[in-house]
Amino acid sequence: MAALVQTSGLTAFYGDAQALFGVDFRLDAGERVAIIGANGAGKSTFLKCLTGLVKALPEMVRFGGRAVGGAAPGEIVRLGLAMVPEGRRLFPSLTVEENLLMGGFARRPGPWSLQRLFTLFPILEQKRRQPATSLSGGQQQMVAIGRALMANPQVLLCDELSLGLAPIVIKEIYDQLPALCAEGLGVVVVEQDVTLAQRVSQRVYCFQEGRVSLEGASDALTREQITRAYFGV
Amino acid sequence: MLDTFIQGLLLGGLYALFALGLSLMFGVMRLTNTAQGDFIVLAAFGAIAGAALVGATLAALLLLPVAFGFGYALQRWVLNGTLGRDPLPSLVVTFGLSIVIQNALLQVFSADPRSLDVGAFATRSVAVAPGLAVGALPLAVFAAALACTAALQTLFDRSALGRAFRAVSDDREIAELMGLDASKVYALATAIAFVLIAVAGVFQGMRTTVAPSDGPLLLLFAFEAVIIGGMGSFWGTFVGALVLGLTQQVGFRIDPGWGLLLGHLMFLAVLVVRPQGLFPKTRG
Q1: Which residue of A197, B28, B110, B218 shows the fewest CB atoms closer than 10 Å?
Q2: What is the pLDDT of residues A40-65, one digit of tens each?
Q3: Which residues of A touch B164 (CB under 8 A)?
Q4: How does DSSP assign A67-90, residue by residue?
Q5: Which residues of chain A neighbour B175 with C-beta distances below 8 Å?
Q6: Confidence (pTM)
Q7: What is the mean pLDDT of residues B208-233?
């Protein structure tokens, strides 16, 4: 059966600098996969290739078997992939509710709606008419996740959800993921915190200087294996 | 004194119409339309030429959809290519357009000032209170400015298109991530700005004579109104235009040669004392 997301020999450039050197990756429906790696290892570039913000050759990225590398971001959202960007990147001129509605701009048919999001994150209903950037870090992260869910994606990419958040808030947010995946949503989580990444995922990819240096089940990889792969020793 | 005050407000209404399109284009895509004044003059000449064929009213009405289409095409296929981190390309291209328009108008219409003939409407007066009469045309201009500002602000704050304008202005990359086509959104913004330019041009042609070289001065008034009011809010631009109109009118009252000067001095004073303007809302 075709994977939800699959990359084959994915290479990508920022201008003249090569950022990815042939990355093979696979995500199946309902899976939670984590990507770890040092700064500059290519994790964010990889996500940008999936979303269409960085161009790649068509056959290098496939959704459900379909070649989508290099497609416009709008087309990719309509195919069912949504991203929660690094640093949230909410729209400061828009309220919480308006940010969520923007997420639904290119929505596919599906169960997610404002009301359902408010059930998932009740605090957002309280603050729906406030400017989105006036909320606390954890609440902003909820808005960013909600905004991505409004598109009714099959695949959710989460870039550094834990950035700048207190541990208890991080736990509260990540605790929501298994329920989302129970309905078939595939989730890719990029994290700096390796222990956190292992805990919230079923499989882990370690990126190192634009390549996959390690891949395996989250509970099977040892600390030593990861350290070696992380630093390229 | 009351007469000066009212004349100043009505003049401000006209300046608001000059400035709204400029404010819109800068707000959505950080593009300064250096040819704003020249497009207003072009619209006025368009109305004048059209009036010779189909009469003033029909010419003015037809000008609006034409301006919409022209603005859309200009942004989509010319100005979109100038957008980016560097503000220079858009400034240079619109400056070039300014020169082209002025010279084209000169070629076609010669340097003689023209005006849009609307018969008695240009001089009719309306009694607004016992013993107080104002010109019908300036009052119509003010009412149009008020309506346009309210419509624009409502569009921005309450409609899906307004949401798209604000989102793409905040963060183009993330807006595109959500599926927005920024090049089309920008084109719609400019299309609306050009409808406002057409309205401004028609009224300018009615109230006074227009000549091909008038553009830069109108741009200056529009620019001053936007800066005084503060960028990012259409009501701010409206108030800025009123302040400019009032100041100029007070200057005219003191001495006919002082009108524009006092307006410019006040603009400079705002830049020194409160450079972000009276009601700033835009971030960087």
Answers
A1: B110
A2: 889 989 999 999 999 999 999 999 88
A3: 102, 105
A4: E-TT--HHHHHHHTEEEE-TT---
A5: 91, 102
A6: 0.90
A7: 93
